[in-house]
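Two entries, shown back to back:
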Amino acid sequence: MAWTSQQEMAINARNCSVIVSAAAGSGKTAVLVERLVSMLTDKENPVRADRMIIATFTNDAASELRQRLNLKLLGKINEEPENLYLLKQYTLLQNAKISTINSFCFDLLRDNISNQGITSDFSVLDESIDKLITNEALEETLDLWCRNRKSDIEFLYDKFCIKNDSNLITLICEADKFLSSLAMPDLWLEKTLDELNKPLEDTIYYKRLKEENSERLKTAIKLAEENIELIPEIFYDDTPQSAKAFQKSEEQAENDLILTKHVSDVLNGSSPESIKNKIAECISFDRIVTVKKDIQHDENLRNIYKSNRSELTALVKKCFSQVQAIETDVNEVRDIFSLFKEMIEDYHKILWNKKTEKNAINFNDGERLALELLADTDQNGHIVQSQTAESISDYYDIIMIDEYQDSNDKQDLIFKLISKNYKTDKNGVPCYGDNAFLVGDVKQSIYKFRLANPQNFIYTLNSSSEFSYGTHNTNTFIKLNKNFRSSKHVIDFVNYIFCNIMSKNCGDIVYDESEMLYFGSLNYKNDTDNEDNKTEIMLINETDEEADAEKPDNSEACITAKKIFEMIENKVLVRVDEHKTRPCEAKDFCILVRKNKYTSDYIKELQKLGINAKGEEEKGYLKSREVMVLLDLLRIIDNPLLDISITAVMMSPMYMFTAQDLAEIRIADKDSYIYLIIEKIVSGEYEVNNALREKCTYFLNSLYHFRLQAVTLSAEELIKNIYDMTDFITVMQLYTDGEKKRANLRFLINYAHNYETGYNNSGGVSGFIRYIDRIIAMGDDFSQGKISAPSDNYVSVKTMHKSKGLEYPFIFLVETETAFRNDYPQVLMSTDNRVGFVVNNPETVRRYRTIPYTQILEKNKADICSEEMRLFYVALTRAKQKLFLLLKADEKQLKRVDALCCQLIADKNNIRKTAEKASSISDWLWLCLISHRKFKKICEQLDYEFTSCPDFQSEQELFGIDFYCPQLILQQHNQEKQKYYPDTEIIKEIKSIWDMNYDTELSTTPAKLSVTQIAKKVSNIGDFLNCTLKRPDFKTENTSLTGTERGTAIHTFLQYCDFENAISDIENEIWNMIDKGYISESEGAVIPRKKIIAFFQSSLYKRIKSADKVNREMKFMIALDELDFNNEINQKFKNSHGMIKGIMDLVFQEDDMLVLVDYKSDRGNNAQKLKEKYSLQMNLYKQALEIITSMPVKEVYLYSVEMEKEILL
């Protein structure tokens, strides 16, 4: 492929560290692979394939990268098969460290573990087990403090708790989560306490307060000056009344300015106490001058004046209140943190002891221990390489990190320490050496909740110089900003949005020409003028004019589903490549939501219109039906006296008891446990019908068997045995989501294994059930079972986070009004050694935020806003062909837009500044609409008059606007409901129900039928439920076999014999079968040798031998209602929900089609009679085979052993 100049530089850069800022769709993975291949195949500057570290953030990404490298190298080897260097590199590549960062850390520990409390054979804790151990450690920590430090724990309870200790536990967890993101958490705790113990004026809190107050007062002074300028414009009339109001207002505005400047000067005082006293003396704002209605003035400008004055007085008063409270708050934080630090340290000791007892760690422990191995400190306290780090950095020639923007502080420091020629900057901050290659995009850093720190990327980028050829031993950067994914319409719209709103304060980076996307897709190069691909903004105007009008439950979901339905119906074209298009399908659409709770609404609306849709199911595993049944079975294996659990298991598809069955069992004894009643039914003490007694006997015998196994088997082994001994998984697969259910059941084995290895290796079934119950009590859950991507054509409904790395032709961004997160814990911490708390005030019985807390909170709010901005960028850049954005335009939302207009005017039309104050993605979208000339059209269409409207006139034709009314759309669906006519079909159905006589035949039909039983029932051949039992072996010895037994022997031989051995020596193969116990000697004696040899010489066997695939004795079980019966059988089995089972003798595959063969040993029949006798059976086999394999059956044969010929049906 043709590389851009920037891509070529990224591929060919050598002898320096490179950070590549790769924008969305810029082909970063292809560049990374090409760079590696070029380095591995370069003989002049050889790099051994096993001397490179490639770190990714997911196992899938690592696997894909390894696979791509293997394929690339194999391609090179095919071109030069004699090149021994390439062959050696390919061999070494299999040992290369291409893995997630966590896997790299675990390998590092296993190779270099020392006295760290664990051994090299440690296990990795499952997430749920890790949470259980954490909870146990928290409980033990609080118990320890309650016993030994009663007064201290009471102090902390008073500060944080109301009813119980849950707030304190949450506090510890939040603190621990923050500390786990730090490279040196213990050092942070010490420095933070030292900071609190300094004199107030030397603390970072007071210094930060002075800086914040200085900024507040600068803003206040600007507002005061702006008000002075507004006065002449407000009072434009020359009347005496207006002149008087002008004079008073001007004097007040000038006094406000003088007072604000005075407060600003006072803040430069020498001590906090003196500042506090002086400000208290000078803060005195007069009431705003009253302006009567009869005085001519500009009301809009007067409102701006009042707003400015309110803001400036609030700013000044806030300065005063914070100066007053700073000393008390810092002292309180110090008193709390000194105890809180000790509690966290105790908690860490208890938690680590629990982990070392189990010799198990989590991901965070792996990174922490790896860092302990790699890092030392010098005499100045700066971080330097340990001997281990030096040896590792000398060994590895390449370090590559993919998605570098998602790294946390620990991960970043680990790779800095193992880079060649590790160094620090002038302040002692660690930097990368000269063999690192870092790839990422800070605009796509969206995992702060996973402790990712985008500042690592920004710092490394800003401390690097732009790459140029000839650079040596320096840190350099390259930017890839050409997008090869999206159409020009998508790219232009993305650039328009983020050039307006993304800034350093909101997004952590300025979106300018160096960060913009540039069109580069060959697929869409001929569509640059195609107006159909222009972004569509869908404004939803929910009016209240008709109060009685029916409205959809979710208007956005209704409109989105309708739009997708119309596009599929109208066969809107999707671009496949530069020259090819096709009609769109459901799989071409993706709906992006901010929160997972909305996905079900969209799936439901799409399904109403007959469109398949799928969301992300992460939770609900332990509540899924199939898992609940298995867990209930394990509960009654442990304790069979649990009536609810035993009832659930009995009525499940595993045992298929009916409600009537359970009622009869309960009637037999109303007071006893169900299990004990069943025992008495089986023993004959209670009288029930024979069918129910047989069910109870089977159930009781299987439960006895499982309980006996539970004594010696682990939970994992027992679950496997349950699956092997029952048809439960097979039955579950018959449901529409059968593959999902099967995966969930298989995953239960993994979870049981994790419990045995990571939590309790001797707990057995009882321990496993208690473990599950604790998980449920904690409100936790396991992940759903993973299934391979289905071939079904469906619309994807995903959260924005889950969409990262994916792409779709059409993206619908919905629920944009979802508010940004604004719930914060009671403790906030920052990397610059600050901590703040929300504490209880015993006097007012209310909580209040300490000043240190509010200082950190402002920074956290800005960080969250920046992350939401980057998430918005990720969402928009998933689109390949076209974007659809939904915006509500109801009265409530338009009031919010009005407020944005006013704020924009107050911010001097600085959109980026106003964007910093947004509370949802819709705010950003509306700001960009306000700045466009089409906003006037929107105002006219919505018939809404805004208080004030900024004057922007962007002329770019980047998007179209459509207006939607949910009520009208719903009325289109319901328009047929206006007139009501009797439905003749329903009337017929009601009459048939009324006249129906209950057919008892199905009530006597078993839930599971064999094909032979069905054939007999249809043919009325005897009692189809009866069966002939096999004679015991001792009865067949020295006696002749019956015809049926002879036929069974022939079938058994053909089932288990080795065809090749039988052809070469049939006598020897028969004795092999006898020795293995498949047949007895008497059965072996009656096998017709010549007729078997005739089968192997037949033309049918020649086809079998040359077939693509052969299956012998193929078992199956499917639902009766899946088969297409003829009318006669329909009458027998209509409305049956039973199962049909059978065994096909032989199936072989030819040219993607199947051939079905059934052996027949009947005597005295000709070909026609055999066809008539077995046509129904073989037809059912054929249908079943096509259902379970999804492949067509082209031929069905009977092979008559007696006639030595195949018979085509």
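entry 2 starts here
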Amino acid sequence: MEADPELLRWSSSKPSNNDTNNPGPSQLVTAEERDQALSQDSISSLSSEDDSLEGEVYEEEDYEGDDDYVNQNYDDDAVLSRIARKSRRPGFSHGYDDDSVRRVPRRGPLKPVEPTAEFKNLQSEATSAFIDADYERALDLVKQAIHLNPEIFQAHVLLSEIFLAQGQKRKALYALFTGAHTRRKPEIWLEVANLILERADSDRAAALDDVVYCYSRVIDIDPKRYDIRFERAAINEELGYKGKAIQEYEKILEGLPHNTNALRPLAALYIELGEIGKARAHYETCISYYMNLNPEEVEDFTWSDVNIYVELFSYEHQYLAGISSLNSLARWLLGRKGDSGWDMVDDDREWDADDYPRRIATPWFVPGQYPLESYGVGLPLELRIKLGVYRLKSGYKDEALFHFHWLEPDDNSPGAKLFDYGDLFREAADSMKDIQLYEDALRFYIPLQHVQDFANTSLFLAMAECYDACGNTEETERCYLTVAEYDKTNIEARTKLAHFYEKMGMTDQALKFITEAADIGREEVLSRRKPRFGPNIGKLANHFRDIERASESIGQLAPTESTVPSTVGGITAAEESTTIGFIPRAVTSLPGEQQGREIASLKPDGENVRYLYAKMLELQPYMRQGQQDATGDWLDIAYALLWDFRSNRVFFPLQKKMTFLGYSREAQRKAGRLKSTNLLDELQEISNRIQASMGTPEIDASSIPNDYHGIDFDSWLDIFLEYALVLSGQGQGDEAYDTLGAAADASIWYHSKPSTLRIYICWFACALRLKDEDRLSDISRWFMKEYQFVTDAYRLFVTLSRVCGNPQRSLFHSAPSMKFMLRQVKAVDYSLPPDPLSPFKRSPESIYQERASLTTKNSEGEYIPAEEMDVALLVLYGHILYAGNSFTNALNYFFRAYALDPENPAILLSIGLSYISHSLKRQSDNRHYLVMEGLSFMQEYRRIRSQSSVLQERQEVEFNFARVWQLLGIGHLAVVGYQKCLEIGEEIETERQKAQNPNTVEGTTVGEQRGEAWLEDFSRQAAYALQCLYLQSGEKDLCKRVTEKWLVI
């Protein structure tokens, strides 16, 4: 495989005495802050630059100023994770000279370290081996060279070429991608981006993400590379990151005000997001600037920008304002900016082709004052049609048709406007069809049949609608048949044809196309499936009774094609064609069936409901087994039953505080279904008030029914819950949530705490199936409100956040969750009584500006205050702050929990990690102090955990300590910790094997630990971390050994 000439050009380039960028200070904000944060001693071993692959002599450079910058080997995050940087405090000096004058440390990177002779030899041998196509030897040599000096870009280039020659494109890109960090040159990053695009496989999205990263590095080096900003914005838009693309274009407009190349895509993005006002504001700012200039001086603002700006008015239906803006901008571009008198004219004579007859009749018009081309002839045809559309929508029909006729719809010659402006023909025709100018619309629709790009199904459907309105049945039929023949899946055309033939009295043809439409509809995905009979309980019951009769008849009569229809999955073939509901049931009934069916349809709903409920119980086992036909029938029945239940207003009173009192007229009136319309009702209300004042009960509790149509309310609740679960399994989240919401609002369950609990448990089960993090957050908040100050409610919130949390946009540490949990903490602090031993005797009212809200009531309706501080709540809120990188704030709550439970290992671990994580932040004052504080709590955590006899807890200690060492860049201690973790993992595996075969267990060790010994095993996580450490240090054999033993499934 041939090597990339561009990459070899870098490898064979001659050494340069000054190979560093020297941009101005305003262009290096990000890099300068990063370089100021790095001390000289910590990066001296990382800042070097190679100038030759052939072992040429490296000349030293003299760095005496702050203007020479050499990029480090890694970007900010990598440097922070690998280098223990020294703190630079304002009053701290690194050393003094003889006169005790403080020496100011140099800013920026130091002189690059000269590569050793060993590196040069390895690089030269690797290059020779690569040229000789000995890729394995070249690969081994270049890896050794990179291990000696990873800052030299040419070594990474050679490694990339070797991988590419071996056909490993992904590794080749990764090597080049890694090596680009060694040079602070935009050209390198751009070349890497181009190679990524050239070598991108099917996963274009992943490749574009890498390209965005490369472009970001270029912009960090030179923020004024607006061409790269344009590219990055376009890629973000392609990836669907519209918000990022908008921010990029806004940034471009800050540096390049009034740049229309950025303004056009920005306006398109705002239109997609529905923020028309922002798009108009940007364009108006741009227009106000350009209109102060002469049109000859303006190159960027063109007719296309006028078209875009005027189009914005249509989204807000401001057509007259759009006409006014179009006229003024067109005059300015045509050189008639001061000719504004035409704004007082109600018509568009200004844009006539000739002065006669209308323009000359205007009193102030002076022929010849402006060229004739600056009037009607100079207006682009696109803007003229838009002007006509706006006039049509404003009620000026004649002016609109005048503009549309400029398209010359009757001209179909080879050079006609039809073939160049087909989109304008369609726009004009659609606008006329919308206001029912069908004959005029057809003049522009008909020519489009001869243009391939516009002769599509929507055109013929629009033509058919116009022909039908004009009474041309022959052409209407032709257009619909054309669509049906061209598009085999178009249901709309077949439905229109069915209605058309029905109106014409051609029943057979109508049935034919309805059958085709029904067949197409059945092929749609199950998520778009609708109940066959909707909420009609009678029809659905008759449907299942017909199937039962047909099954019974099959045993009595010989099955012939002329008498018994074929059945598939319990549904007759004739019935399959009635899915949409237009085709009458085929006449296949046995003698007497029709009469029986009519009798069944007259049965009361209660009997049909009980019959369907029994049928649903019969289908339920098959539905739970996943049989598709049984699931469809079960869903149809459940939908009909629930519709009937939800249609009963007694269960859903206007005021939720109203309880269920029965099905009587009085109960319905109290529920809000009936109104007091006569004197008897008023007398009844008076009687009720007198009974209430005398203490007599209104309704006997024993008289309140506990069933509906003979089905108890608990069974109805089961139908609601299981129906929602089945829908969630099919991805129909909205309908599932709507069903559960209806159950929660029903008065028979709204006032029942056990029933409400079941509903919300089912609610978060559906959200789990749908992976709906927003809904899970809402449900967990409900549990924390209803069961306030209950530790398990807070633990449920944490569990649900962990199950479906999105690391990129987690609701766990979002602002609403943070505020809600803070209110919970304040509620506990407010409701707790003051400490009698405290010298401060302040009341809660004097401490808190607002009363904390209590949400849980006891059986007597009184709010339940907190009895003691909940440690789990404090730790939970601390972790929310920790997840948001607010480590110092998190420590406040961790220490409060520590005061209550000083030997809790989770609290000790959280405090230790907070200190260590804060030490790695740029704003930290004393890193060494913070690290030592964190390690002290980590040691206390080890002490507590070491007292446990559970293997997993001892393994957890070793793993967490190893992670801390790796975080601090102390790799050798991390390796020891991970190895101990793997050793304990082998013991865990042995115990697991014993537990699987109880006969081999001696003693009671396994039996005692079985309940908690199999919670978690960190072996694979430790093995992966160990693999990464070995790989970074070049220990390939150890890396391979760990991988084969622990990471191979």
